[in-house]
Amino acid sequence: MHSEKQSPVKYYVGIDVGTASVRAALVDERGTVVAHADQPIHIWEPRPDHYEQSSADIWAACCSVTKKVACGVDAGQIRGLGFDATCSLVVVDKQFRPLAVNCEGQNHRNVIMWMDHRAASQVERINATQHRVLSYVGGVMSVEMQPPKLLWLKENLRELCWEKAGCFFDLPDFLSWKATGVTARSLCTVVCKWTYTSDGGWDDSFWKMIGLEDLVMDKYEKIGNHVLSPGEPVGKGLTPEAAKDLGLPEGIAVAASLIDAHAGGLGVIGADVKGHNLPCENQPITSRVAVICGTSSCHMGV
């Protein structure tokens, strides 16, 4: 009998950083979840409405769960990985070392969490401008978005943080940088939480109007002037250092990241629903709504 030689199964790693834990899944080329793991991450609440995390703690958890899910397969069959995460703000200095976002100067606490509400007065002032970019975020900006947090840092930690900062990352983009050494940002993060637009890019007049004109003068180096569509390959893949940390082969593809709820929306709205007798089976994906639940809940649609 003639038998065809089967090609090795290809695998992919998805890493999801939530509010209180990091999860990883190993998925085969058919979309079957082969293995999964999770690990808690630390949250600091130094005062009311202030919530902070550590990018080093988060990265260590990413490495731990990735090694757990990948240990049962040949590493050479893992072809790529991607990150999604909460839309928290990560601050690093000019040497890409963690930089404190707190008055105590605790550099390991360098992440202002998505649910942090310290910038309440800053977001009120931003919304009072009625600038045209606000129309892209529902007419008013949330205190959980990044511009008010940046303004808070400039007004409250100018010497300790703002003047020393080298980069401000959305957490999903920080993870892509950590994996590849490339500071490119995802279109998902900068549009949804930073006021970037796909056709016009950054609006200089907005940043000048709210008092963050130094970002414009810096040609947006600190918040991102290289933007990729979600899923595009970032740089040349995993760096040798990141590959060692994650227990994966050097150079495998890393996809431009997504905000966690948007990754959930992609998975649910784009799911194959054939054969389940669902009303949406023969309808376009624009007719679907996904509810993504976690520490907060989002309704996602296309």
From TrEMBL:
GO terms for cellular component: cytoplasm. Keywords: Kinase, Transferase. Gene3D superfamilies: 3.30.420.40. Residues 11-267 form the Carbohydrate kinase FGGY N-terminal domain. One of its GO terms (biological process) is pentose metabolic process. The keyword Transferase applies. One of its GO terms (molecular function) is D-ribulokinase activity. The keyword Transferase applies. Pfam families: FGGY_N. It comes from the Eukaryota. Belongs to the FGGY kinase family. This is FGGY carbohydrate kinase domain-containing protein. It comes from Eubucco bourcierii. The gene is Fggy.
